[in-house]
Specification:
The protein is an alpha+beta fold and 430 residues long. The chain has three domains: 117 residues, Beta-Lactamase, CATH 3.30.450; 106 residues, Beta-Lactamase; 159 residues, Alpha-Beta Plaits (2-Layer Sandwich). Helices cover 44% and strands 26% of the residues. It has 14 helices and 15 strands.
């Protein structure tokens, strides 16, 4: 053998050794297979994965090392490469026979050609992505769990960025807006909501962005069909390392029924149950406000004290159920003949009061006489409508310059009412 040839062989052997060293330390699994899927070369990482020396791997197929039934994509990808001469880049799942361990790889497989251009095998490089894949699986499981919770919780949950563009909405919020989530993501409220609704939502949003703190408050949403629902909303800022707001999460709970119940309770607290007029407390509250307004702006103000005549006789003769009916019908007749600005209330028993804002004594007397006439002429309902004829007596007081408060007017009206009673009833006295 010539010296030059020896040098070439030595150089080539060195190159091969360097190549082997490189492949053994490349940080990936490198291998070559023949057309039968048997290994003809594996690097150090493959040998360590299989826990076998090189001579026990060469000539063996994947079935010796992997659970092929559960790692079917390995065989499929190999056939695509060698039968169709295609490059395959794909994720593969391997289950190691010796340990039962599940590993995930990102694999690139390419065909290996002979001198005639015919496929004689394939080579592959696989990078272990097991840790990342398991984290991804865990993340997806957590996302699925979170989505299940968020989409089934009895609340509207959403996230907005600092420009108030939606980044997330749960199923409940999407149903409220009548759109699919992907139709809303990236949009602001004013892009798809009625202007008044968007403006209402913006109040708490802007307060959070201005203060940087959690905010809570009442919000309302109208569906455009006259149906309005009310929500108690809490919005929490999300901040970066510099304590700057990047986004915020909102939680809105439907309190429509609670609001309706509250309003109903307020109505009941302010309304006489039998006549549906303002009760004594509510009437006094409204009358005192009107008294202060009239005195401040030097406006006339009058008060009527009304009493149903001979009401005790009606109760004693026909029973309290008939008396209640008379109370309701007299109250309805009086209320129907008042102006919108006037206020009427039941003060107790068969006594009523009417406040007439911006009304002097003469006009108040005209109103009182009309009420007397309307009640006198009214035909009561029921089987005793011909037997029962109700009348009322009315006392009038007009606000005077020396009045200190509403009580002064109430006292004078009561005195005038007593005078009307003493004068024969069914009449008006000042």
């Amino acid at each position: 053998m010539s010296a030059d040839l020896e040098k070439q062989i030595a150089s080539l052997s060195g190159d091969i050794a360097a190549l082997h060293l490189t492949l053994d330390n490349i940080g990936a699994y490198v291998y070559i297979k023949d057309l039968h899927g048997c290994y003809t070369y594996v690097n150090k990482m493959v040998r360590e994965l299989f826990a076998c020396p090189l001579e026990e791997i060469i000539g063996q197929s994947d079935s010796k090392f992997f659970s092929v039934e559960q790692s079917g994509e390995l065989m499929i990808n190999d056939r695509v490469v060698m039968e169709q001469s295609q490059t395959v880049e794909a994720e593969e799942k391997n289950i190691i026979h010796s340990t039962g361990e599940v590993r995930y790889y990102w694999t690139v497989k390419k065909p290996l050609f002979d001198e005639q251009g015919q496929v004689k095998g394939m080579y592959g490089i696989s990078t272990d992505i097991t840790e990342r894949k398991l984290l991804d699986i865990k993340l997806k499981e957590n996302e699925k769990l979170l989505d299940t919770v968020l989409n089934n919780v009895d609340a509207h949950i959403y996230m907005k960025d600092r420009d108030c563009r939606f980044r997330y909405i749960n199923a409940s919020t999407a149903r409220l807006f009548g759109q699919q989530p992907d139709e809303i993501i990236g949009k602001k409220g004013e892009d798809f909501l009625p202007p008044e609704t968007a403006a209402d939502f913006a109040i708490l949003d802007n307060k959070l962005l201005a203060t940087g703190e959690k905010v809570s408050g009442e919000e309302s949403f109208s569906d455009g069909k006259g149906n309005t629902r009310y929500y108690w909303s809490t919005k929490v800022p999300i901040k970066d390392e510099q304590e700057q707001i990047t986004s915020f999460i909102g939680f809105s709970n439907d309190i429509t029924e609670l609001i309706a119940l509250k309003k109903n309770l307020e109505v009941k607290a302010n309304t006489d149950e039998l006549t549906q007029l303002a009760n004594r407390r509510n009437f006094i509250d409204q009358a005192e406000k009107e008294f202060i307004r009239a005195r401040r702006y030097h406006l006339p103000l009058s008060l009527l004290a009304i009493d149903i005549d001979c009401f005790k006789d009606i109760n004693d003769t026909y029973g309290h159920h008939v008396g209640d009916q008379v109370l309701k019908e007299v109250a309805a007749v009086c209320a129907a003949n008042l102006r919108g600005a006037d206020c009427i209330g039941r003060m107790g028993g068969e006594e009523f009061s009417v406040l007439l804002p911006e009304t002097g004594g003469d006009a108040a007397r005209v109103m009182a006489e009309r009420l007397c006439r309307q009640v006198r002429d009214y035909q009561l309902a029921g089987p005793r409508k011909d037997a029962i004829k109700s009348t009322i007596s009315i006392g009038i007081s007009e606000m005077l310059a020396g009045d200190d408060d509403l009580d002064d007017m109430l006292i004078r009206a009561d005195k005038a009412l007593y005078k009307a009673k003493e004068g024969g009833r069914d009449r008006v006295c000042t």
